[in-house]
């Protein structure tokens, strides 16, 4: 037997109807339970109901919602109080599952110990102790410990940063507390909260549903059933043990809402949910990669074999994770590169041993280890980790939350951006600007002007024929039933909620409600300063609801007047319309529908409108950038058998009422961001559900389209989704360029667009907010979901989340991605230059034999460690923190297939590294042969004796030259093409511009200063220099050091000049300071800069060569004066 709850007991909020049965979509009047379960006698029992501590309490699916509200000391309409929710959160904890997803201290420590650098150093340390070189062994031990500590601290901070950023992108739930509708992180939900869910939401906790409209949930995670489950909130079950899939009055945590909307009371959170119980039963909490590696359920294998494979797979996973082979593509690539260098180090050691005819004594062994240490870039992985951490923090400040690090690494190669219009390119705050109703006399158009607050029905005024009118006078003067029916349609066929509320959260709910009801008269006096209009819902519906409220025809007013909801068919992105069925106060059943004109026209009664007249009016509105919606209705016969639960039954033979023209102004920063993208060789595509005319108008306003576009491209620049989808792949590929604007876009169109871009070898960003956008987000190279209006399903499918839904944030993210890519290249070049120079020096140094025929170290092992660990590490960190170059968004996207090891990087590091190695070698030779007659002494590798003076001085010179050249290199690689003396011509110019340009990156500047000053104590402090580093202080030899620096600087500057002269790589089409200034100021303006095509992954890179920025100054003035452009008049008005 099934008992059905009473609708009166559910305490329905006015915006929704209680007890909508998911399968029938109709309100069911029901009988109350004969006897509800007994209430706990104490507050302690009430509080612990969800823990199961009260043995007399029945499971939630058998209990009436109002009884549950009493148990949890909540209210079905007003929810919990803020204080009660805070106390319960403090006691129960966060609404999260216990998992191993936190930061693993042991895992981080293992990564530090097991990387190739540490392995080489441990080997060197062992050999030092084995040869009883206690000083060298002790220093290497200290270096190993220092490296582990620094790497651990930085890696731990980076992991914590990623954890915090992921928590920021966690799902947000809509709840009712203190009678107010709030959005809070799902982890802050507590038992007793009233939660509202809609299509695309992930259910945040276990809910007992007490309101629903067409509500269906995908519960495959719990039940294994692939079909969504229709919910029946009005039903309460007798059987406490029925299966989860049959408890249709419950929604369970982590399930997904696939249809409709609903409201429920939280009955379980965290580990006390059904999915939490499953998590609690799992013995192993390994990550998904670990599960994939160790899972072996083959029934044919013996238990011992499965046990062996499981442990073997676990060992392989641990080994790969320790070596850095599990992570983002870039991290894996660099880890493999480090392993390759480790192998190279072993080969170089073999070369050293072979040069000594494999007569390996202590000297040869130490020399081999010295060469091996020289080839490893010790700080590579640590610097990469720090750089990625800095980038994620910068992205978060720029309103972009990174969910997958792969996307952060790939942003620099983006060639195309496919963006939604509403709320991304535009402000997302729509205003119903015009309403056209044919049956009105005269002008037939009602206009709204002077609006400064999109959510306020009191803001602005109405006009008909250019004359101001009062809303009540419009109805009285016309006396047209069509106008009243139109207002009823836009008010009732609408889920938005508009209310007047206090900005502060501590306002009493009762005062709030009284003021709200008192305000419904909508007098034209300004409201109290402490109150403000707040809206919840989609921008389109908010604007229509505000318009209806101007005439006292909002949904709440009409429902209080006797209108009762019977059925609802929510907006469908495919057919682009929404319908509701209401019972009027007189008892008539009336269908109200709104939607796109094209899709709704087939459902209209042809006799109710003039199609030519409507089409002409639509064209006039769309030309002014208005989004046009068609509004219609139908009165169902009193005794008809029309099944209101079927959409096709109610959306037929509709009577045309009129058109609503909605205006959503572009964001002030959108145009500048679009033009900035175009200058960077990135094409911007608008994929919108709007009318082609509206889409075209907004595209021109935002700069996506321009009059200077080549005719070949403009032919198909704007297309309707139906036409694009009708084309075959071959026909799409034959187009000279893909459409820049696709109107009436369906989710499947987005997928086809991504596939078409991939066939053209483009690398694309796709934005989305709805459930149906998930396939496109997953297929795009970088999927970006909307954080404010996006569904949880879209966020889960995305790589990044925009917290402000702003297109300009996407462009800033791409700029940050390019900065990250540049910086990784910079510190890679710097580290590898150091390694190449040391290898050249040490291999050539094999030829220097002392009196005993033993090869003399041009650099001692500890000098190499100092240069690599102390000098280079901080310089590399500083390069990782470099700001973006001024011309970073004036270059074409880089080719992601090539990655960071471009031919320019390879060539530069070889030229600079070889030059540095030769200069270090030459310095050593000059001191030994020119200054000391070629005296190499005897046994100078182990320590000092009276014959080692020349070698120790020459070794100090090589060390000083290496250190100072590394310092110079850190500044030279700030830009691969620009001269050191003109690094930043946009910010700094003049004969002394080099100094402020170098100081701009303060971390790098002080790292260079510290490296310079730190060289002198190492060379001059007694005992430390002779016994530890095996060199002596310098005198006249400083002239050799200075000369080497001058020669190195000349070689690097000459190579950069050659690149600029012949237009090679970064020297290609160098941007002049004038163009840089013009581009920066023109980013906010209506620039039509000409661009020249260059090579890029998609064959469409652009470099600015010239441009007209006449609009820039006016645009900047408009921004300063807080002005907006009125699309209707194309005139500028101050707000």
Automatic annotation (TrEMBL):
Highest taxon of source: Eukaryota
Record's protein name: Uncharacterized protein
The species this protein was found in: Lipomyces orientalis
